């Protein structure tokens, strides 16, 4: 008897392709889905999306191009996306960073009024040394850091080039550094992850106060979230 005669005839319907696609998971996406590393206490009021992404990428060891594509899979990571509310998908950003909506909303610029924001990355050297960048620094009518009273810089002090304020691969892979020569914007050692312990209480208060003033003046800078003080906060304040 031929061997084929011993085989059961297959049902043709069983040979049809499945109605659902077979998904190919990126190992990094799967790892983020299982849980990313981030702490809300690492952030200060008014922290920009760029500053947040630098900390998130560092904490989770993410490549810059991959992180930019997670924000918007339809863009070229080398070109990037402007960090403004009308462009960035806030819901997608929340799922990625797992941060409160008001924190992310405050980290983005409002493009309702053209010419209000500086196209180049503006920074305070002392804030950069603490791993902090504020959306305030991108406002054209803000010329000094409210905490350190230093003039805001746009050019690298080493090569003289400016860094465009666009979330792309070049910017994300160079935390608080010039995208042209990779020199640090800060004075010395960079504390990238946790900002709050490095900033003095009065400096944090000055930044929060300036954010509240700008929020009262117009709607382009949301009011910083207030959290109740705890006994630990009072103890830390006494030590300072």
Structural overview:
With 240 residues, the protein is mainly α. It has one domain (37-217). Helix content is 32%, strand content 0%. The chain contains nine helices and no strands. The N and C termini lie far apart (93 Å). The relative contact order is 0.15. Residues 18-25 and 226-240 have low confidence and may be disordered.
List the helices and strands and how they pair.
Layout: H1 27-34, H2 49-59, H3 64-71, H4 90-97, H5 101-107, H6 125-129, H7 169-172, H8 201-217, H9 231-239
What structural category arises from helix and sheet content?
A: mainly alpha
Mean pLDDT: 79
Would you list the SSEs in sequence order as H and E? HHHHHHHHH
Count of spatially separate domains? 1
Instruction: Evaluate the radius of gyration.
Output: 23 Å
Determine the N-to-C terminus distance: 93 Å
Number of strands: 0
- Number of helical runs? 9
Biggest beta-sheet profile? none
The helicity comes to: 25-40%
Shape: globular
- Unreliable spans are 18-25, 226-240
Strand percent estimate: under 5%
What key phrases describe this protein's structure?
mainly alpha, disordered C terminus, 9 helices
């Amino acid at each position: 008897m031929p061997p084929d005669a011993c085989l059961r005839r297959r049902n043709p319907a069983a040979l049809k392709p499945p109605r659902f696609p077979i998904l190919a998971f990126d190992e990094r996406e799967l790892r983020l889905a299982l849980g990313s590393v981030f702490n809300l206490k690492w952030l200060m009021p008014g922290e920009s999306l760029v500053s947040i992404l630098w900390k998130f990428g560092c904490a989770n060891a993410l490549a810059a191009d991959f992180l930019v594509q997670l924000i918007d899979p339809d863009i070229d990571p080398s070109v990037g996306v402007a960090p403004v509310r009308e462009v960035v998908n806030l819901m997608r950003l929340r799922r990625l960073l797992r941060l409160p909506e008001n924190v992310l909303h405050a980290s983005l610029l409002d493009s309702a009024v053209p010419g209000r924001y500086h196209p180049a990355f503006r920074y305070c050297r002392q804030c950069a040394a603490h791993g902090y960048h504020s959306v305030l620094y991108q406002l054209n009518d803000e010329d000094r850091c409210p905490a350190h009273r230093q003039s805001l810089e746009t050019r690298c002090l080493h090569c003289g080039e400016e860094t465009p304020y666009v979330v792309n691969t070049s910017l994300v892979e160079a935390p608080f550094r010039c995208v042209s020569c990779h020199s640090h914007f800060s004075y010395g050692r960079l504390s990238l992850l946790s900002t709050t312990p490095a900033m003095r209480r009065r400096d944090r208060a000055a930044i929060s106060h300036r954010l509240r003033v700008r929020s009262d003046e117009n709607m382009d800078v949301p009011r910083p979230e207030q959290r109740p003080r705890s006994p630990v906060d009072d103890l830390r304040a006494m030590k300072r």
